[in-house]
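Q: Sequence in, structure out?
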Amino acid sequence: MGLDPARTVAELRELQELTGDENGAQRVAWTDTWARARQWLREKVGPTGAVEEVDEAGNQWFTLAGESDRALLIGGHIDSVPNGGWLDGCLNVMAGVEVLRRVAREGPPPLTVRLVNWADEEGARFGRSLFGSSAAAGSMADQDDLRRRKDADGVPLPEALAAHGVELDRALEARRQLESAVAYLELHIEQGPVLESLDLPLGVVLGTFGVERHLVTWKGQAAHAGSTPMDKRRDALAGAAKLALEIRPIAAEVGDGAVCTSGGVVCKPGIVTSVVETAEQLLDQRHLDAAKLARLLELAKGASERFAREEDVDVSWDRIWSIEPILFDERLIELADASIREVAGTSHRLPSGPLHDAAEVARAGIPTVMVFVQSLRGLSHTKLEDTKEEHLELSVQALDRLTSKALEAFTA
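A: Exactly. Output:
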């Protein structure tokens, strides 16, 4: 039907050449390179006849009018992390462009089809991921915090947004963009090793993990490293070290894909001649099941209290951030699974550990699904990120089949 998946791969290479360097992709949101990529995308979509609009949160929309105003959305993000890979985010968008071309050539679709390039999915410059999609979903509840955020050079977030025509105080007005949406589809590289380990090119995503992220603070007593006997020490780091190891059996006990990470420990006074008085430990826990996520947290807190008693130190927990698990639409999961089987012969269902714009859209109550394509070595957010070209082409075909099935299913 005129679909050309090889063109998607070629355009991804073109974008890599336009906005990357020897260290990888440099399309950090709210920068000139990011704006150049958006202009390039505008030129690629133009011949389809889709009408462009940039909403109040900076999201870039391309609308192909159909026989109904009800809209099927296909989405992704063209921004990257610094020194990022050539596929993360932009594959979603460019595969969507190719599908939009095919749909446009066939005449007005039964539903309006809209391609969205979400603004600042990565949060690389200001540390706030999913900026544009959370605004459109109405879940951006932290605008006071956003006003205070600055980048590494001290530039305030509102100032950087304004340079690209976005007013932070109006960002939530982007919610109007989802009013006519009936479903949302997103293709993404897996960013993990599961599909490669199964020797499968494609999989359908069941949902995104819920996250519990805490700062665990251990308080002991600073003391001279030479004169304090081992059995007289109140070593805050000892408690943190025990917890860092204990989260492994905790994850195994809860099971079903549970993951826990002790991502960093800051010790004070932080000198080799003193027992550690304070250890500030970052803990990240994720699961697709809300009850099991709560169990991960319960077990970790219980273990920390046990270790605090053993080491004669104090421990306290402060929540940094949390998000509930997001389950994708069962009807769309079935359609995605069927689409993958048609182009690849077999499929696999798996959760997503990373968050995606799709999670925000699903939180807004819109039926949502994602398709994953295999990542070589499970690597992402690095210039080493890669996927076999034949798998990329299969992913474009799968998204196209899914689009056709969704148009039929949601027109009925």
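The mean pLDDT is 97.
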